[in-house]
Amino acid sequence: MKRHLILIALIAVAVTACKKDKFNAAEQAKTDEADIKYYIGINKIPAVKDDESPLYYQIINSGSDSHPTETAKVTLAFEISLLDGTQINKGTTSAQPLSGLIEGLRRGIPKIGAGGQIILFIPSALAYGPQGYANIPPNKVLIYKLNLVSFN
C-alpha cells in the first residue's frame, strides 16, 4: 500500500512539475497598460498614448525640427528604470542604428529632434517581453528618460 501511495505522489509531483504557466500576451498587454495608466495617473504625468501602439510618452523638449528616421544612427543620453523606481541603467550611447533598438525606442525616438527630451513608458511587448534581458526582469514596463543628443 505504501508503494502505491509513494508512486501516486511521485506521479503527481512529476505532472505538476511539467505543467508550466503559459504566457498570455493579451493579458500581459492589459496588465502593462493598467500599470502604466496607474503610474502616470498617480504621478500626474501628462503622458499620451501613441496612436499606433501601446507606447505612452511625454515630450519634455521637442528638439530640432528634423526628426530621425528608421535608417538613422542615434546618439542618446538615457536613464532606464522600472515602474517601482528600480534603476536599470544610465549612460550615453555612441551612434546606434535606430533600427537595431527595441521597438518601443524605434517608435518613440522619432517623436523628437536632436536636442529633444522624451520620457517613454514602454510596455513589455515593445521591450524585452517574457524573456527579459540581462538585469531586466521578464514582462516589465520600462521607463526610458531620453535625450536625443544627435542623429545622422
UniProtKB/TrEMBL annotation:
Please list the reactions this protein catalyses: [protein]-peptidylproline (omega=180) = [protein]-peptidylproline (omega=0)
Q: Could you confirm whether the keyword Isomerase appears in this record?
A: yes
Record's keyword terms, sorted: Isomerase, Rotamase
GO MF, one term, reads: peptidyl-prolyl cis-trans isomerase activity
- Report domain PPIase FKBP-type positions: 71-152
For this protein, what is the EC number? Answer: 5.2.1.8
* Family (UniProt): Belongs to the FKBP-type PPIase family.
Q: Provide the protein name.
A: Peptidyl-prolyl cis-trans isomerase
Q: Which organism is it from?
A: Mucilaginibacter limnophilus
